[in-house]
Write a structure and sequence with these properties.
The chain is built from two helices and 14 strands, in the order βββαβββββαββββββ. By secondary structure, it is mainly beta.
């Protein structure tokens, strides 16, 4: 389930006193994108489902909220992803996960934190980003499930992202940027490591929401692949992003060690743009 917190973050004491956001600075030049997809005040809500013995059961809820903030005295954006299992599921496996990502208005990562209670174990992960010489410098702190803490200083060229900032960055993608089957490599930071992972663009598909007020969206579909210790790729998450200027994640399909899970959008408020990906008759 923690892969959802991928997709679909208290600041560590590592100072970035040399940061400046001005044009020509190292940070400004480091893989910025033009954000036309989301704005401060956006809130996305999801319902989670687990497949239990061939039956899909409601498992909990998730929310992704975005607001303006400041970081080291500079303007920034903050996205928080919170996932909670239902009381029924808590009897078998309790999960309380909170992820926070802080990034520039051009979606360049600055800070990430994940705190996760999963079953009887608690883990946290903090990443502080800095930039120099066309490289991303990551200071990573990871508390393992057994309570031990490891730290690492890693370097990525040119860009690296955590779970949340990668999702927000993907929302700037356009269908015209890709061909079906195209592979998109990226540097992914998690725990105390940085790994090269891959997204595959699967094309455009339609997705209809559940509930009494069904909506059908035209979506861009991506799959997230991860390599195992033998180098073999496995599809971890498939996610659907609306084919309009909002690029909202409306559906996620997850392949877990113990089965499968899904997350479906139930409500979206504070959107920046009209929902032009809705099928005729569903437009807002």
């Amino acid at each position: 389930m923690k892969r959802l917190l991928f997709i679909l973050l208290t600041i560590f004491n590592h100072q970035l006193s040399t940061f400046n956001f001005a044009p020509g600075s190292a940070l400004h030049a480091q893989c910025p994108v033009e954000n036309t997809a989301f704005q401060s005040g956006e809130r996305l809500e999801y319902k989670l489902y687990f497949n239990w013995k061939f039956i899909w059961k409601t498992a909990g809820t998730a929310s992704l909220t975005t607001r303006s903030t400041t970081y080291k005295g500079q303007s920034a954006m903050q996205s928080d992803l919170i996932t909670t299992t239902s009381r029924h599921v808590d009897r078998f496996f309790m999960m309380r996960d909170t992820l926070r990502a802080i990034y520039t208005p051009q979606v360049v990562p600055l800070f990430y934190r994940k705190g996760a209670t999963e079953g009887s174990k608690y883990r946290f992960n903090e990443i502080t980003y800095s930039y120099a010489g066309g490289k991303t410098l990551l200071h990573q702190v990871y508390r393992h499930g057994n309570g031990t803490i490891t730290t690492a200083d890693n370097v990525a060229t040119p860009c690296a992202h955590d779970m949340v900032s990668m999702v927000m960055r993907c929302r700037s993608y356009k269908a015209s940027d890709f061909t079906k089957g195209q592979r998109v490599p990226f540097q992914f930071a998690d725990g105390d490591k940085v790994k090269t992972e891959t997204l595959i663009y699967r094309g455009i598909k339609k997705f209809t929401t559940e509930g009494s007020q069904k909506k059908t969206y035209r979506c861009l579909v991506f799959s997230y692949l991860e390599k195992n210790s033998k180098g073999k790729e496995k599809e971890i998450v498939t996610f659907y992003i609306t084919d309009d200027r909002n690029h909202i994640p409306v559906r996620l399909d997850l392949n877990l060690r113990f089965g499968t899970a899904k997350a479906y959008l139930t409500q979206a408020t504070g959107l920046r743009n009209p929902e032009t990906s809705l099928e005729e008759g569903d437009e807002q």
